[in-house]
Amino acid sequence: ENVIVQWIGDINQAIMNDNYSESAWKPEENKSYYVLEITDSKRISQPIADVIKTVAVKSYPTLIGNKDINLKPIIILFDDNNIYQVLPKFAELLIEKRVKLNNEEMSIWEISKLTEYPIKAVGWVGKEKANGLSILSYYKDFYKVSSTKRKQYFPNLYTMYELSKNLKPKEFKDRVINCILESLYISDITYNDKKITKTSFYEFVSLTNENFLTELNTQIVKFYCGQESFDNFSGYVIGLFEDNLNLQLNESSKKYLFEEVLVEIKQEQAKSNNIFTHEANGMDVSFEVATVHSVKGETHTATLYLDTMFHENSIELIKEQLLGTNYSLQNRKKRKEQGLRIAHVAFSRPTHLLCIAVNKSSINDNDTALLTNKFEIMEV
Questions:
Q1: CA neighbor of 321 nearest in space, from 350, 342, 292, 293
Q2: What is the spatial distance between Cα 321 and Cα 258, in angstroms, rounded to a whole number?
Q3: pTM of the model
Q4: Which of 45, 57, 215, 299 has the fewest C-beta atoms under 10 angstroms from its C-beta?
Q5: Residue 45 half-sphere exposure, CB side, CA atoms within 13 Å?
Q6: DSSP labels for 79-122?
Q7: What are 86's strand-pairing partners?
Q8: Over the chain, what is the mean pLDDT?
Q9: Helices (H), the chain
Q10: Of 155, 269, 136, 247, which is closest to residue 196 (Cα–Cα)?
Q11: What integer pLDDT is reported at residue 122 of this predicted model?
């Protein structure tokens, strides 16, 4: 009786269960507590706040954001024939859109590099859909990995080697194996019709010749200790694949393993191989492509929300709220609430720029007229 219990969180977001379909936290079901609402945001701009006031299960009568940033959120319209142009368009907007930081006008891309808040494109569903949108619809190289099992990524073996010389032997070995797996992925080499993982790689090598695994580990140790040069080690790996394991690497994989080029990478890029890069206005712009679930709690400089299908298109689930209508708690729909919570998480990540990818078929002329109150609308 002397214990006070506090629940701290956002009822418009969700702690998801294992299949990402239902919230494991529903505080509104317990009516025995007093609610203290916080309506000021230290992250999002006021134009973004004006959007997420209604893109929420429980709408905010007032939501105060950063009034110093006055950049309208952007809806990027696409159709089935040009969906692959959505990510390049977003990259171009990162250079094109400019705001002031410390009284100096800068692009969103420049602000991200200065503040070290990343830029990401996120969607609800990462798995491939036979008859519907997924992240793969926009970025065919997307590979969904669990955040707890996410492997270290490097743009080539040489960069890994140069950045890993002072690591402990086990971590160095793990990074080498991850680079080997990346080279197999680049060549679309699979095992039992599935992407090769560390476990399946060891199984495949051992089944082919049980001595290969011991030999590979010995070479990695020599590589780590400096007894084997980079050229010799990378040549050994290519030879192991092609001469002993009968795996044919394409030229991109061979370049990944053999080219002695040190590539500068950011910390967040080393955590994922889902990095999209596009040249915009003479600059190489890169950002991570991820699921919404993997970015909960993060702060971004800019976020692109990709429409995907979970039973139905995620934009269709939230369209009324995008148009400014509050969600009715008297007429509740489970799937719609899921869509609103997912969108709310994505929309509340960026400090400066929010973009939303929308299929032209999802909105009509009347919708467009209403959306222009809060959004800038453009086509790829």
A1: 342
A2: 52
A3: 0.66
A4: 215
A5: 20
A6: -TTSGGGHHHHHHHHHHH-EEEETTEEEEHHHHHHHH---EEEE
A7: none
A8: 86
A9: 46-52, 86-96, 108-115, 135-138, 157-163, 169-186, 198-208, 210-225, 230-239, 251-258, 314-322, 334-347, 365-371
A10: 247
A11: 96
Q: Quick check: 148 pLDDT over 60?
A: no
Residue 139 has a pLDDT of: 93
Enter the DSSP assignment of 241: I
Give the whole-angstrom CA distance, residue 184 versus residue 245. 12
Beta bridge partners of 68: none
Question: Would you call 44 helix, strand, or coil by DSSP?
Answer: strand
Chain center to CA of 314: 17
Instruction: Give pLDDT, residue 149.
Output: 41
DSSP class of residue 219 equals H
- Both tokens of 38, joined, read 């916080």
Contact 74, 353 (CB under 8 A): yes
Q: What are phi and psi of 355, to 5 degrees?
A: -120, 150
List all residues 6 or more positions away from 296 whose beta carbon is below 8 Å from its beta carbon. Answer: 13, 345
